[in-house]
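[job 0412] stage=fold_complex status=start
inputs:
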Amino acid sequence: MSRFINKKYASLEAYTPGEQPRERKYIKLNTNESPYPPSDGVIKAVNEAEVSLLNLYPDPTCKALKEKLAALYGVKGENIFVSNGSDDILNFSFMAFCNDSDRLVKFPEISYGFYKVYAELYGVKYSAIPLREDFTVDITDYFGNNANVVIANPNAPTGIALTVEEIEQILKANPDFVVLIDEAYVDFGAESCLPLVDKYDNLLVVRTYSKSRSMAGARLGFAIGSAELIADLEKIKFSTNPYNINRLTLVAGEAAVDDDGYYVENCKKVADTREYTTKKLKELGFECTPSKSNFIFAKSNKIGGEELYLKLKERGILVRHFSNGKICEYNRITVGTPEQMDALIAEIASITEETK
Ligand code: PMP
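[job 0412] stage=fold_complex status=done
writing structure:
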């Protein structure tokens, strides 16, 4: 740290992203990327002609992409915000809707680690609410109309989802606060609360291209909400970095909407592979949460979480381990292709056999 840093950031604990190793080729099951490539349309869209336009700024309003997303989700362009990954949208939302006095924020204690980082970055008072013993969210903890609410649905790293009815109860119980539902993983089998956007002007639904749309490397996310909430996010974007989505990502994002069917099929494949892998893990003595996402949250009855993570890494398979006490015996395993999951199962069977 330099001696010049603003005092308010001196003790800030930054988010630690999952490993992105370059030194060795791993079966990479640690950051919930799609194992499938982008669609042919996306690959063709990022072509020489587009690259040769990189001397020009991209459209800061992202009009064409917004129109395509609006048509896909049955809303208007004014209900869509697009940004540089959904992390960017979370960041803008904390900036726009929370403050340090009457706009505090509640989120589950075990959830996406960035919520706490943003709250601390902006000096927002937050309440990180424990999950129930079985890792489910108790929605009544979020009633009270006294704080903004941020919930990942399905939650991460548990994969457990709330129903739309449960989310509606949270919305009804907080009419004067923003309820942000982070649907990064919704396409893999949970119910989206997008149909509620028309009814509740305090609902912001945040989505990403990084998981179900195989574009983690392109950095694209979008949010759907009332025109007023979206206008607030636009104000923040235009006050920080108006060109925050590059030209190539914009054309790739548009092509991905055109090829939506391809991604829907991939999500089905991932959900089938998740169920298959979960069954195999249970046969090997694992406890797995009922995941509706593209990852499995699993604890072995034979080997500790960290030891398993390290042994798998030695053998060329990367999974995600969190050192947080309550979940340190678990690993979060991204669902890959059936072949990758067979390789994982084989290694786990051999590791657990050795540790008997
Ligand atoms: N929300 C959740 C729950 C996530 O797990 C992630 C991925 N790490 C994100 C948001 C951010 O994804 P991205 O910025 O790639 O869109």
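[job 0412] summary: The longest helix spans residues 260-283.
[job 0412] exit 0
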